[in-house]
C-alpha cells in the first residue's frame, strides 16, 4: 500500500494496485500496476473505497464527544520505555485524553513493540487507535540505539541514485513495521547550503540543490509509503535560511519571495504534486509569506493560502513539536484554527485540550473546523487499516529489525558513497 495525499492510496509492495482520491475524484497517476505495464484494477472498487474511507471518517466523528475530538488533535511525546510508569502515562494519554497519536523519543526497540501492542488495545475496545510516530530521517537509530545505523541525510544527499533512496525508504518502513510504527517524521526537505549557519540542520538536510533534495527526499518518502508507513516532509516552508535553530528560538526567514519559491518551496511543491501524505510545519517566521510575522504553525497565510492553496497539498498538516523553544507561546487551538490537523508534543496535553474547549466555547475556534481536522486524520487511519496497519512482530524485534535486509541496505549505501563498509559503526546488541 502506498499512501498518497487525501489523497490516494496505492498498492505498492503489498500488491493491491488501487488509486484512491479524496472528495470522490478518481486519479490513476502513479499507479504501480500501470508503471509496470500491468492491468490496473477497475475503477468501480476504487470509487467504493474512496466513499468507504470518507463514510468511515464521517461516522466516527459523529460518535465522538467534543472533548474526544479535541484530544484527537494532539500527539504527545513519550520515551520508548516499557517500565510501568511510562506505560501508565501512555494509557492515560490514550484512555483519558483520547489523543490522536504518540511520538516516540529515545528508547529501545523492544519497548517500542510493547507500546505498539498497548495502542492496539484501543481497537480491541472499539476505539480509534492512535498513530505511532518517530523521527527516522535516516533510520530508527536516530532514536533507538539498538537499531541499525545508516549515514546522516547530508551524506545520503551525495548518492546519485534515486532508486537507492527509494529502497532505503522501503527498508526503513520494514523496520518500522516490525515494531509497529506507522508514521515517520521525515524526510527533511529543507534546502540547506553547505555554508549554512546552523550545523544541526546542515547535517539533517539532503543538500543545497532544491531539485536534488526534492528527488531524493521524495524517493525516500515513496519507499516509506509503499511500505505502508506514512511519511511527513519537514520543515515547511523551509528551514534552510533560518537565522536560528528552532529548538532554541523562533527562526526568521528574511529571503525574498522569489528565492523562497524557487528554493525553499520547490521540494514541498513536488511532494504535494506527488500526492504524498504528511507535511510538518516548522517554527519559522517567514516575512515574505506572512507580513504579520506570525510563526508558520499559527499562520493561516502559510498553511492555508500557500500550502493548501498555492501548492495544492491535501494531506495531513502537522506542527513541529510545541515543547521546543521556537514554539514559545504557541497554543494548539491556534495552530488548528490556522490550518494544522495535528499538534505534536505539547508541554501540557491536558491543559491544551482544556484551552481548545474554551476556544470552542467562546467562538475563537469553530466546531466545523475541528471536525474537518478530525475527519482528515480518520481518513488516513482508515487507509492504514485497509492496507495492513503495522503491528509489532512476535519474537526478538532487535534481531528482526537488524536483519540481513538491513545489512544489505547499509552495504549498498556505503558502496554508493564510495566508503569502506566498516566506517559506520555496527548497531549495538
Structural commentary:
By secondary structure, the chain is of the alpha/beta class. The protein contains 16 helices and 13 strands. The strands form four sheets. Strands 4-5-6-7-8-10-12 form a seven-stranded parallel beta sheet. Strand 4 (77-80), helix 4 (84-96) and strand 5 (101-107) form a beta-alpha-beta unit. Helix 2 (43-63) crosses helix 14. The longest helix is centred in the N-terminal third of the chain and has 21 residues, at 43-63. The relative contact order is 0.15. Residues 1-44 and 420-429 have low confidence and may be disordered.
What would the keywords be for this entry?
two-stranded antiparallel sheet; alpha/beta; 429 residues; globular; seven-stranded parallel sheet; disordered N terminus
According to DSSP, the number of beta strands is 13
Structural class: alpha/beta
Biggest beta sheet attributes: 7 strands, parallel
Q: Give the radius of gyration.
A: 20 Å
How far apart are the first and last residues' alpha carbons, in Å?
32 Å
Strand order of the largest sheet: 4-5-6-7-8-10-12
Number of helices: 16
The percent range for strand residues is 5-15%
- Molecular shape: globular
Assign a percent range to the helix content.
40-55%
Stretches with pLDDT under 50, minimum 5 residues: 1-44, 420-429
| Oligomeric state of shown chains | single chain
Mean of pLDDT? 84
What is the helix/strand order?
A: EEHHHEEHEHEHHEHHEEHEEHEHEHHHH
